[in-house]
């Protein structure tokens, strides 16, 4: 028993370091660091480089990695990226961290080399010493983990409580505006916090490497488990985060004592523990209405941020005038190009284009849920994966015709999405993002990577309709379906339901007073988006003739989203381009460049999402608007287009907390914020 | 009044929040060691003026020179370090920090002896000494205001901008506020006082400035602001 508790405490300690770091960076800089796993991987990889590859002894390697490399790295990230995100919306901030977590691991691998053997030593010397306190088993790695957590806690609490630096950090957490009125530069404090979070990420990464592997995926799993503790802490309370993280670790290991280690039930229960914790806390907070968007800063910070003249309202007004003509031409052009292309390609390339179009169908579900509904759902790729599995099952077991299986099978996935939608309906953006990502990890572990669905990675076989055996024909089929779905989305946008969505997007309170049921709209949206995602998944499976479960990994979902937002998260045609880029670009790199550069597209995708921090409308929309401005002669029109451009990055950021009469009245097109 | 170069010279200051302009061409001078009362109805732009001078919100026109420095170019922390202390409207305290920590935060900008400052604050407001370990967010509204004010009295800035420090206080507490600011003046601190008690503020100040819808509608020596003038600009109720 004690052995299980001891092992659990070690696991919990890693979760605690991760959760603590996530909380402190969030409260002190307003950014929830989804790139934590990527940072952990980076530092751990660097440590591995020094310790294992360069043969440094453990102490110097640890000191250089954790005390020099990690803080400099964290501070650098803040200085070049997160500093600019402070006033942006949750969505934009998350996108930037998503971009970073997409770009960073391959970048690191490009520099330090690919690892094939992903088990890495941690901070304890090898061969691993084993102790027997009170007859239990405790290895040196676990001991090192305890010590790591203890040092972090003692130093962290000591600094926060008793030093002037700590005082400033806590002041910043309370109110940025008041902090700067007191003569303390909030930027500098945040820089320090990011430096520390680099160290914490590195520590968590190094400590977890021996058990979950030195890979971005292993770190991502560790991070999403830590989310449960972060949610329990309601994103703010360090103490709660640490306690829950430790408990979670202990529970995870102790239940193993009572389970048969070889059963598949056990294999399912273990990874579900963090999710169960998350669920319990979420329900608890949701019932008490306490899981809304955490409002950063104090009253003064809200009072000085410009309110009213809500730019989002202006943008909705501007879009129909400015976009329709330019975008319909653009859409047509892109569709024509993509339609012509497969005809001229050989099998390989036509196959890639077809895959891209199939992915684009799934991407449309992000367009709907994120672009239209402004909900940061990170689980769409999982719905796609489940859709693929369901369709394959229907074809395989019940001998349904493939197309029917895909179209009807996707309906079966809808309840899952609706359930998730209902569960998260009252939650703030950030909670939704965390819950959906964890949900994705869970389904991936529990379903998609289990047999009979996994089958050594190839998944189940999936047939194509008999008339579309040829890649080119299949590409056209996918394109037709894509356009169909696109039309549906356009109609959703235009119809009354669309208005409701727009209203929900701009202001929940506003929508409520309009008498529109937010719940109904959101549920409708999640149902439709889930269906579309599953449909896309089915098409991907048909394209590859196998379900390929690994291609639906949640971390790839981040890549999908990164590419989509880079292209523009609200435009239908952007989804098409994004899908094609997603598959064709790696194809180009793989065919024409050395192996070493195989990951470059992923890096570019991530960087694209980071670029979103500066061009929040995405490149396609941006270029479209620029072109529209160039070609238009009508001054009024140009004016609107220009307004669209100068509009502040993000509508949600202006979403007023107390929507005063002033905010409601001033809905005129304006120049946006300074 | 002294004829030296002014401590603060504001010219044609303009400010907008997003699309809505809140200040238009506001100008005034403030001599060293003097006090200015800024009056005006709700929404006139008084608070906005204070926020702009302290660097919290950006200006969109005009200039402001403080002790030879271009104020509008400085960030809020630098403004504070240059000697301008802004006590914001409402509860200008860190709710999560204890009373004592709030006071320590106030001292971070001035690298002077810490303990004399703390002692001074506790001496003026004994109630704060009793509650020094209590989180500021759990103090009553009036106590929070006292705490905010204490932050100004324990250091020696060149200029204090006090935004509605007497709002919502009992008459006795209002007396303390005025007495405290008078004490600051005696120590050579200039004061910009934004007040609802117009008469009292003008009695306290050397100069008056009345804002109306973001513009300055009257400015001049405080003693020249008679009842009739206040009535005209502020309406009956405000001229108390
Ligand atoms: N953050 C903001 N965003 C948009 N407009 C604002 C903001 N803060 C203030 N305003 C507007 O600027 C104008 C001036 O406001 P300000 O707070 O400066 O007035 P005030 O004179 O201090 O009023 P009061 O006596 O009520 O404190 C008002 O019309 C107000 O609505
Ligand atoms: Mg005011």
Description:
Chain A: Its main location: membrane. Chain A: It is found in: Cell membrane. Chain A: It comes from Streptomyces fuscichromogenes. Chain A: Belongs to the binding-protein-dependent transport system permease family. LivHM subfamily. Chain A: GO terms for molecular function: branched-chain amino acid transmembrane transporter activity. The complex is a heterodimer of chains A (674) and B (240). With 674 residues, chain A is mainly α. Chain A folds into 2 domains: 2-122 and 134-300, ABC transporter involved in vitamin B12 uptake, BtuC; 330-587 and 596-659, Orthogonal Bundle (ABC transporter involved in vitamin B12 uptake, BtuC), CATH 1.10.3470. Chain A has helices spanning 2-29, 36-53, 58-80, 90-112, 140-162, 164-174, 176-181, 186-212, 216-232, 238-257, 264-287, 299-304, 311-340, 347-372, 380-398, 402-424, 429-448, 471-494, 496-506, 508-513, 518-544, 554-567, 572-592, 600-611, 619-631, 635-646, 661-665; strands at 130-131, 138-139. Chain A has a two-stranded antiparallel ribbon with strand order 1-2. In chain A, strand 1 and strand 2 (138-139) form a beta hairpin. The longest helix of chain A has 30 residues, at 311-340. Chain A starts with a helix and ends in a 9-residue tail after the last helix. The model of chain A is unreliable at 308-325 and 632-674 (pLDDT under 50). Chain B has 240 residues and is an alpha/beta fold. Chain B has one domain (8-239): Rossmann fold, CATH 3.40.50.300. Chain B contains 9 helices and 10 strands. In chain B, the strands form 2 sheets. In chain B, strands 6-7-8-3-9-10 form a 6-stranded mixed β-sheet, sandwiched between helices. A 4-stranded antiparallel β-sheet of chain B has the order 2-1-4-5, covered by helices on one side. In chain B, strand 7, helix 7 and strand 8 form a beta-alpha-beta unit. The radius of gyration of chain B is 17 Å and the shape is globular. Chain B starts with 7 loop residues before the first strand and ends with a helix. Classes of the chains: A mainly alpha (674), B alpha/beta (240). Chain A binds chain B through residues 164, 167-168, 170-171, 173-175, 177-186, 298-300, 303-304, 306-309, 311, 654, 662, 666, 668, 670-674, and chain B through 16-20, 51, 54-58, 60, 75-77, 80-81, 85-86, 88-97, 101, 104-106, 108-110, 151. Adenosine-5'-triphosphate (ATP) sits between chains B (17, 20, 22, 40, 42-48, 89) and A (303-308, 662).
């Amino acid at each position: 028993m004690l052995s299980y508790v001891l092992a659990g405490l070690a696991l919990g300690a890693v979760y605690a370091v991760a959760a603590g770091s996530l909380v402190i960076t969030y409260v002190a800089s307003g950014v929830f660091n989804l790139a934590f796993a990527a940072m952990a991987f980076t530092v751990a990889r660097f440590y591995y480089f020094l310790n294992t590859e360069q043969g440094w002894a453990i102490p110097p390697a640890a000191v250089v990695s954790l005390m020099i490399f990690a803080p400099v790295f964290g501070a650098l990230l803040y200085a070049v990226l997160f500093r600019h995100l402070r006033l942006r919306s949750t969505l934009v901030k998350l996108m930037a961290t998503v971009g970073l977590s997409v770009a960073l691991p391959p970048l690191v691998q490009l520099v330090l080399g690919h690892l094939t053997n992903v088990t890495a030593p941690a901070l304890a010397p090898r061969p691993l010493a084993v102790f027997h306190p009170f007859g239990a088993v405790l290895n040196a790695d676990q001991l090192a983990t305890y010590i790591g957590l203890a040092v972090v806690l003692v130093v962290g609490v000591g600094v926060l409580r008793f030093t002037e630096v700590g005082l400033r950090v806590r002041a910043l957490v309370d109110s940025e505006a008041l902090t700067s009125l007191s003569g303390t530069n909030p930027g500098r404090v945040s820089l320090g916090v990011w430096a520390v979070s680099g160290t914490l990420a590195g520590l968590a990464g190094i400590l977890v490497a021996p058990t979950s592997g030195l890979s971005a995926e292993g770190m991502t799993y560790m991070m999403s488990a830590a989310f449960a503790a972060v949610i329990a802490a309601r994103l703010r309370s360090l103490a709660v985060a640490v306690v829950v993280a430790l408990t979670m670790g202990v529970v995870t290991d102790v239940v193993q004592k009572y389970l048969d280690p070889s059963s598949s039930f056990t294999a399912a229960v273990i990874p579900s523990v963090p999710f169960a914790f998350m669920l319990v806390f979420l329900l608890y907070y949701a019932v008490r209405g306490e899981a809304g968007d955490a409002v950063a800063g104090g009253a003064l910070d809200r009072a000085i941020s410009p309110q009213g003249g809500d730019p989002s309202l202006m943008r909705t007004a501007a879009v129909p005038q400015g976009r329709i003509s330019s975008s319909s031409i653009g859409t047509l052009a892109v569709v024509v190009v993509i339609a012509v292309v497969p005809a001229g390609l050989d099998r390989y390339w036509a196959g890639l284009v077809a895959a891209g179009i199939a992915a684009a169908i799934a991407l449309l579900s992000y367009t709907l849920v994120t672009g239209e509904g402004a909900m940061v759902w990170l689980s769409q790729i999982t719905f796609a994966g489940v859709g693929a599995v369901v369709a394959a099952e229907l074809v395989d077991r019940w001998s349904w015709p493939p197309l029917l299986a895909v179209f009807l099978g996707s309906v079966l996935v809808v309840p899952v999405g609706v359930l998730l939608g209902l569960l998260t309906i009252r939650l703030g953006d950030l909670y939704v993002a965390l819950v959906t990502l964890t949900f994705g990890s869970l389904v991936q572990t529990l379903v998609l990577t289990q047999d009979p669905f996994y089958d050594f990675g190839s998944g189940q076989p999936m047939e194509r309709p008999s008339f579309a055996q040829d890649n080119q024909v299949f590409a056209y089929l996918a394109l037709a379906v894509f356009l169909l779905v696109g039309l549906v989305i356009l109609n959703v946008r235009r119809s009354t339901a669309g208005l409701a969505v727009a209203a929900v997007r701009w202001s929940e309170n506003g929508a409520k007073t309009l008498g529109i049921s937010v719940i109904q709209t959101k549920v409708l949206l999640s149902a439709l988006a889930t269906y579309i995602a599953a449909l896309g998944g089915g098409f991907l499976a048909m394209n590859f003739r196998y379900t390929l479960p690994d291609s639906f990994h949640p971390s790839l979902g981040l890549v999908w989203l990164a590419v989509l937002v880079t292209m523009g998260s609200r435009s239908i045609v952007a989804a098409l381009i994004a899908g094609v880029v997603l598959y064709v670009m790696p194809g180009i790199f793989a065919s024409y460049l050395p192996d070493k550069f195989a990951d470059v597209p992923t890096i570019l995708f991530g960087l694209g999402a980071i670029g979103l921090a500066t061009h929040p409308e995405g490149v396609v929309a941006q270029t479209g608007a620029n072109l529209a401005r160039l070609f238009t002669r009508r001054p009024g029109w140009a004016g609107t287009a220009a307004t669209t451009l100068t509009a502040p990055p993000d509508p949600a950021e202006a979403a007023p907390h107390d929507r005063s009469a002033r905010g409601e009245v001033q809905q005129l097109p304006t120049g946006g914020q300074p | 009044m002294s004829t030296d170069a002014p401590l603060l010279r504001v010219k044609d200051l303009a400010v907008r929040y997003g699309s809505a302009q809140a200040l238009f061409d506001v100008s005034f001078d403030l001599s060293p060691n003097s006090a200015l009362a800024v009056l005006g109805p709700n929404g006139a732009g008084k608070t906005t003026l204070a926020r702009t001078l302290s660097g919290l919100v950006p200006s969109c026109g005009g200039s402001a020179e403080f002790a030879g420095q271009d104020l509008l170019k400085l960030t809020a922390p630098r403004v504070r370090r240059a000697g301008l202390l802004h006590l914001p409207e409402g509860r200008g305290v860190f709710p999560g920090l204890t009373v004592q920590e709030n006071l320590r935060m106030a001292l971070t900008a001035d690298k002077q002896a810490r303990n004399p400052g703390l002692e001074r604050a506790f001496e003026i407001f004994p109630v704060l000494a009793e509650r020094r370990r209590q989180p500021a967010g759990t103090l009553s509204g009036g106590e929070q205001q006292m705490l905010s004010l204490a932050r100004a009295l324990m250091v020696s800035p060149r200029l204090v901008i006090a935004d509605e420090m007497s709002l919502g206080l009992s008459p006795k507490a209002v007396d303390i506020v005025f007495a405290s600011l008078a004490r600051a003046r005696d120590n050579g601190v200039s004061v910009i006082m934004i007040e609802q008690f117009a008469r009292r503020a003008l009695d306290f100040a050397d100069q008056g400035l009345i804002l109306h819808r973001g513009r300055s509608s009257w400015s001049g020596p405080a003693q020249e602001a008679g009842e009739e003038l206040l009535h005209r600009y502020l309406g009956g109720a405000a001229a108390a």
